[in-house]
Amino acid sequence: MNRAATILLPLLGALSILLVWQFVLPLLGVPAFIVPTPATVARKLVTDAGLLAANALPTALESVLGFLIGNLAAVLLAILFVYSRPIRAAYFPAVLFFNTIPILALAPIIVLIFGLGILPKIVIAAVICFFPTLVNMIRGLEMPTRSEFELFRILSASPFETFWRLRVPRSLPLLFTSLKISATTSVIGAIVGEWIGANQGLGALIIQSTFNYQTDRLYAAVITSSALGLLFFGSVVLAERLVMRRHPA
What we know:
The longest helix has 38 residues, at 159-196. This protein has helices at 3-27, 38-47, 49-83, 85-99, 103-114, 118-141, 146-154, 159-196, 202-211, 215-246. It has ten helices and no strands. The protein is globular and about 75 Å long. Helix content is 84%, strand content 0%. The protein starts with a helix and ends with a helix. The chain has two domains: 1-30; 33-246, MetI-like (MetI-like fold, Orthogonal Bundle), CATH 1.10.3720.10. It is an all-alpha fold.
């Protein structure tokens, strides 16, 4: 498949879905108050641009801070687990158990502990980012082979040099894979936190629009949250290209 086809086919697919949504669903009798047409949602995106932007800002802040805190904690804990087998054996099962708790069940507990401010939303976003990065980072740091470690030992490399020049470059592809996942899930975590208790943010706007049967505004808020996730994802992809250019796999 040539490059033009890889670009045109997704565009044609998206266009066909929009055309079915715009013309076929109304013909099938789907009420507009349940599924508004793309034209109606597009008008709402324009008329409510200020409202959507005002609510997107706190969600973006919560997502970014949760992304940074969750992934930083995961990387640091992964390093600790790799260099200390007893600590890993003692605490990794607890981390695994914690990850099995659905985020919707965990969110009320976090809100109960941290209150109704911005902090619980950041914590929920951090929690949802944490485990994929932890697992991928552990695997990445353990990817070097025994012969590679032996080569660094022959070259009299210090433990820090072995870590920085061997383990870290080997872990970068897996790390960026998890960061790309976290870029979108951090938005999900922030919105879930806003569902539990907030008076601003895209999550709060989604809840308000649902209860008031403002489906055009509801769809506009969902599309805005999706655009936020795509923006974060694109930022991580750009960072990956810049870093991997200096440290090719």
